[in-house]
Specification:
Elements lengths: L1 H23 L5 H28 L1
Keywords: Membrane, Transmembrane, Transmembrane helix
C-alpha cells in the first residue's frame, strides 16, 4: 500500500513538472546551448573514465 502511495505522489509531481514546463518553459538561446555543449562533452568523458576505474578497481 505504501508503494502505491509513493508511486502516486511521484506520478503527480512528474505531471505537475511537465505541465509547468510546457507553460512557462522557453527554448534556450544559442549562447546558452553553446555554453552547455562546452561542458557536457568533458563531463561525459570524465564519467566514462570514472566508471571504468570503478569497474576495474572494485
Amino acid at each position: 500500500m505504501q508503494l502505491l502511495f509513493v508511486l502516486l505522489v511521484l506520478f503527480a509531481a512528474l505531471a505537475l513538472l511537465v505541465l509547468l514546463g510546457e507553460r512557462y518553459g522557453r527554448p534556450p538561446s544559442p549562447g546558452q546551448l553553446a555554453r552547455l555543449r562546452r561542458w557536457i562533452l568533458p563531463l561525459v568523458g570524465a564519467l566514462l573514465v570514472l566508471s571504468l576505474v570503478d569497474y576495474y578497481w572494485a
